[in-house]
Amino acid sequence: MRFEEFDDQTLNQIGPPEATARAQELVNEHHVRSGYRLVNRILGVVEDGLPFQVAVKIQNDHLAYECSCPQSEGGELCSHVLALLWAWVKEPNAFLNQGELKERLKKYSKHELVEIILDLAERGPEARDILKEEEQGLDDILESIDRVVDEFSPDPGAVADAESKLRRAQLRADRLAQSGRLAEARSIYFYLLDSILGLEERAQRQAFSAELKKELFEEYCQFIHEDRHLERELVQQEIEQLESRGPLTEGLDLAEVKRELSL
After folding, report:
1. pLDDT tens figures, 189-236
2. Model-level pTM?
3. How far is CA 173 from the centre of its chain?
4. Nearest alpha carbon to residue 219 among 191, 200, 179
5. Theoretical Cys-Cys bridge with 20: which of 15, 94, 120, 175, CB 3.0 to 4.6 Å?
6. What is d(CA 260, CA 263) in angstroms, rounded to the nearest whole number?
7. How far apart are CA 89 and CA 70, in angstroms?
């Protein structure tokens, strides 16, 4: 599924009635702001007493979301996430497109870009909040993964909840990658993949979706290819750790990664 395929019927199906009704109120009262479209994600700020940062991602037909509200921290699909999706369905052209923005910004000098940022900070509190916002670091994200591992249960419902929480950690890793912190993003993807395989060892079965493991591995490999300052010895150790998981790594071409590292 792609964001372009979302419609009213889809949103009514994925959200609880109360959260859906509140989301529609937020959209109708123009509380969804700063809409931003990336290749596979949409971002925005939803004003609901406080400004909440929201991110939604679709990959391999899975919906992953992150919101700064307490409700989302508990793993629920909150009204703010739904509000961002409703705003997208109602007026997708209101979302700033990253690809188009990149092409426009390439025309400016460094000095001009600094002036643009300062002007944005002066014009709106949302811009100032983003500039002041402290990004969640590597240790915090790894700790969030550890909590999922500690609370894991092989019950199917619990596995689905764990997968949802792990996808939120994936979104945070993507933010680090976008800010140029490729080594940290790669470390998180490795930790996610290794943790999932470790949980499957504990459960003595392939509990998580093959799509999730494939997606994590492909992104992990992509970060390896993109990192010009790659710590090869560290990555080799990571690959060896994954190899130690045995049959659970079926479908992950670890041998190819090792071959590329040796070149």
Report:
1. 999 999 999 999 988 888 888 888 888 999 999 899 888 888 989 999
2. 0.56
3. 7
4. 191
5. 15
6. 5
7. 25
**146-181, pLDDT tens digit by residue?**
999 998 888 877 888 888 889 888 888 888 887 788
- Measured CA to CA, the distance from residue 250 to residue 263 in angstroms comes to 24
DSSP 49: S
The domain segmentation of the chain, as residue ranges, is 3-97, 138-262
Q: How far is CA 159 from CA 43, 63, 127, 192, 212, in A?
A: 26, 15, 37, 14, 12
CA-closest candidate to residue 189, choices 226, 159, 218, 209: 218
Q: Which of 66, 82, 76 is nearest to 31 (CA)?
A: 82
Cα(28)–Cα(18) distance, rounded to whole angstroms?
Answer: 16
- Sheet containing 41-48: give its strands across: 62-67, 50-59, 41-48, 32-37, 96-97
Q: Taking the CA atoms of the chain, what radius of gyration do you get in angstroms?
A: 20
Please say whether the beta carbons of 84 and 42 come within 8 A: yes
DSSP 165-205: HHHHHHHHHHHHHHTT-HHHHHHHHHHHHHHHHHHHHHHTS
Name the residue among 101, 93, 99 with its Cα closest to residue 120. 101
What torsion do the CA atoms of 56, 59, 60, 64 make, to the nearest 10 degrees?
-30
Length of the chain: 263
Residue 235: CA count within 13 A, CB half-sphere: 26
The dihedral built from the CA positions of residue 60, 173, 198 and 153, taken in this order, carries a sign that is negative
Residue of 69, 74, 88, 107 whose CA lies nearest to 11: 88
Q: Is 222 exposed, middle or buried (0-12, 13-18, 19+ CB in 10 A)?
A: middle
